[in-house]
Amino acid sequence: MTTAILDPVLILGGGSDIGLAIAHRFAKAGYPIVLAARDVEKLEGNRADMALRHNVEVTTATFDVLDTAAMPGFIAGLDHTPGTVVSVIGAMGEQDQSEADPEAAAMVMRANYEGPALIMGMFAAQMEEAGHGVLVGVSSVAGDRGRAANYIYGSAKAGFTAFLSGLRNRLAKRGVHVLTVKPGFVATRMTEGMDLPKALTAAPEEVGEKVFDAVQARRNVIYVRSIWWLIMLIIRSIPERIFKKMSL
Question: Which end of the chain, C or N, has fewer beta carbons within 10 A?
Fold first, then answer.
């Protein structure tokens, strides 16, 4: 009896808490892992731990989502074609700074929409030609409706969500599956110090489990905690004349 060889899972944003949690879950199931990030030296400890813990091949690759010109070379330089690509890339930024500084706003928009959409589009073309593959985009509930507190970040995530939706529609008959993930609050280094409600806040490991299960089940869109589906439905349903008077 032979054991099936699983295609590698590429994690774009592999140094993030969520990215590492997703990587661990796929590695636990026997998938080879490629962790991609700007500073691969910082990934060495995580790479070695993951490989030892799960007894799978774990490699690293240098990737900067803002360097769009280098993206074709990055894909061509991978040792193996990934069967699953997960984009966990993003930068929340500061809303006040983004309002005051167009360059800061542009960085948030590029990191959360332009870069992730372009690289996922390139992998989509590769998978479409092969006739199989999975693309997972981690977006945000912030993209469901623009709010004064974070509309620069939210608008970029809204663009990424719409991009993934269109990509899913385009590839539905091409053997390629596209999953959109909306985590809600997650207890990570990025949210450290924030007063987050426990009932609405997931651990990175919970995100990893939900993403893995959703890929296996070929889900299209998931909220990591289902309560967020209801919350965002209510927020989206508030009439604009009322919503613009609210502080959210």
Answer: N
